[in-house]
Write a structure and sequence with these properties.
Blueprint: H1 2-10, E1 26-30, E2 36-46, E3 51-56, E4 59-64, E5 68-71
Length: about 70
């Protein structure tokens, strides 16, 4: 039973779990042309998959999670 619960929670990723909100202050994004964007995160949202919408310095980027690094 505990193993099933652990597997379920491990698959949650960046979702709100047990009323916890994930907050990130900085991000680095790799764009398809190879350009690296980094800076203070104004806002971010995750979607049902591997897409992240990250706003840095007023510009919003939609990227695959594999192309983004975020830290608190």
């Amino acid at each position: 039973m505990m193993l099933v619960g652990c597997l379920g929670l491990c698959g949650c990723g960046n979702y709100k779990v047990f009323n916890t909100t994930f907050t990130y202050s900085w991000a680095q994004i790799k764009l398809p042309d190879g350009t690296i964007i980094q800076g203070k995160v104004d806002n971010w949202t995750d979607y049902e998959g591997d897409q992240l919408q990250i706003t840095i310095d007023g510009t919003t980027y939609l990227v695959h999670a594999a192309n983004a690094t975020m830290k608190t």
